[in-house]
Amino acid sequence: MQILLDTNFILTCVKQxxxxxxxxxxxxxxxxEYLIPQDxxxxxxxxxxxxxxxxxxxxxxxxxxxxxxKIIDLPTKNPNxxxxxxxxxLSKEVDKKPGFLILATLDKNLKQRVKNKILTIRNKxxxxxx
Length: 130
Description:
This protein is α/β, with parallel strands linked by helices. The chain has helices spanning 7-15, 20-27, 38-47, 54-67, 81-92, 108-113, and strands at residues 2-5, 33-37, 70-72, 101-104, 118-122, 126-129. It has a single domain (2-129), classed as 5'-nuclease (Rossmann fold). Strands 3-2-1-4-5-6 form a 6-stranded mixed sheet.
């Protein structure tokens, strides 16, 4: 199973002290491959420059290193990362393939735009598939 991580999901897991890998391993016994768009890494790097998000962004980068994600490029030229993610997922038709791709996001608009299974945070304490 592949898990595509978006920026807000990662930052919120850090803020809520949710261990992404441990929580996912409690949800599934399938092998997990983490995917992270280069655009998401760029957003996190920009957040390190702001005093209000510097600590969270730095911790997010450290956690991502432990997850050893596969870095992917989103080919769409749209500057909005959520639009790029949606276009990427819609182009994959992943819901028809075994070993499907799950989107890890908290963004309501993004959840509505894609047909993929979603990994989200419930009650600020745990991860859940929807």
